[in-house]
Amino acid sequence: MRIWHQSVTELDALPHYAESLKRRFAAVAGPGVEVVLHGVPIGTYGSSSPARALEYPRERNRVANVVLAQVERAELEGFDAVMIASFAEPALREARAALDIPVTSMMESCLLAGCSVAPLIGIVTISPAGARMLAESVDRHRLNARLVDIVSLAPAYDEFDLQRAFDEPKGLRAAFEAAARKAIDAGADVVIPGEGVLNEFVAHLDIRELDGVAVMDATALTLTYTEMLVGAYQRSMLRTGRRWGYPMVPANLRLALDTAQKTR
């Protein structure tokens, strides 16, 4: 089984994160499962961080187009699934409408798994803007009733702050635990680190539980969920819904549109 992992970060600019992902996937992937990492191209965010740029709907749409152009290659290259490794879920619906293989996201995978182990879920993310963006994702999945709170770290962090924290973890650990306890005090029975680099930091420190509440490993969980969906697809237990949610462009219309674009 080959899984296309699609980050929304420039992985070459975040070496601690990229190396952590490689180690973790090697440790948690099932037998015969290969996870191939892909990041967005260097320069996608200029001198900004993903967290800063993705605050803005226009930039989110631009990055979604970059992500879609990348993951559309996965099926042609023989991959069995695409894992969009982002809680912002760029191009998730479009990718599902373009590909016949499973396409998962961190947000949806973690929410669905969280619902299986807890009546109420808490999410910790890296900034107030990130919390607003994740609230939109939860709303898209219609799981608001199962979410007790989305709590931002204080002070806010971006991906480069998080990478530096791998070498000096004390401050970020304290900030994460304080935010997680706010969610727990509000009623959360499972806490999701709601940002990819943050999750790697939490897993790196082996924070699995806090005050008797499970802290989810979002990276490992999303991979496990993706492996499950591949098995379901391969055994004809499940298929992507094409009637309403994820309609695929018919071949004749695709050809007409492609021809029109080439003649512009």
What can you see in these coordinates?
This protein is α/β, with parallel strands linked by helices. The protein has helices at 15-28, 50-53, 57-71, 92-98, 106-117, 128-140, 159-165, 170-185, 196-204, 218-234, 251-262; strands spanning 2-7, 34-38, 81-85, 103-105, 121-125, 147-152, 190-193, 209-210, 213-215. The strands form two sheets. A five-stranded mixed sheet has the order 6-5-7-9-8, with helices on both faces. Strands 2-1-3-4 form a four-stranded parallel sheet, sandwiched between helices. β1 (2-7), α1 (15-28) and β2 form a beta-alpha-beta unit.
Topology:
Elements: E1 2-7, H1 15-28, E2 34-38, H2 50-53, H3 57-71, E3 81-85, H4 92-98, E4 103-105, H5 106-117, E5 121-125, H6 128-140, E6 147-152, H7 159-165, H8 170-185, E7 190-193, H9 196-204, E8 209-210, E9 213-215, H10 218-234, H11 251-262
Parallel strand pairs: 1-2, 1-3, 3-4, 5-6, 5-7, 7-9
Antiparallel strand pairs: 8-9
Helix pairs in contact: 1-10, 5-10
